[in-house]
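Obj: model holo form, ligand = FE2/S2 (inorganic) cluster.
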Amino acid sequence: MADMSTSEDIASTQGEEGTRRDFIHLLAGMTAVGATAAVAVPLVDQMNPDASVKALATKEAVIDSIEPGQVVTVVWQGKPIFIRRRTKKEIEEAKTIPMKILKDKIARNLNTEDKAPATPENRIAAGREEWVIVVGICTHLGCIPLGPNETGAGGDWHGWFCPCHGSQYDNLGRIMKGPAPENLLIPVVEFLSDTKIKIG
Ligand code: FES
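Output (holo structure tokens):
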């Protein structure tokens, strides 16, 4: 029997086959994507820290009871954080220290650019010059430096004194003397109000 198919029929049949093949491929593809998605969801879930983990990553501290001249230590992620409220005299004293005598000329402030210089402005939060907030770990070998509460003066520079090998920091936590190579690190800090900060 003569083949009565027209070129249009052939095209149509090829089209249907093509459509079927595409459909099968699409189904296969969707199944694969579905399987990947099924695996991916728990992985993404595991990578999304829940609220309690996020809460541990930051710490809020109420600072209104800290008197000028006092340093309070809070613990954040297992590290001591010194929160220092400077007196007017201390603020002025730190401003008189010339940059050229600083041992470490980099701010080491996680709230500023990487290489920002260690000026007084770069060691505090903008407009909050009373407050100095640093990680209380000596940058030599990791001892905890002593502040004015413990030593009366906080070393020759009236900041912090590390009893382990004699490093001395000014009241902005900048290393002035001794074997410590770097200024005390300033963690990420946000002032939520005049009386409350968030660390981390
Ligand atoms: S650990 Fe502080 S001076 Fe050595």
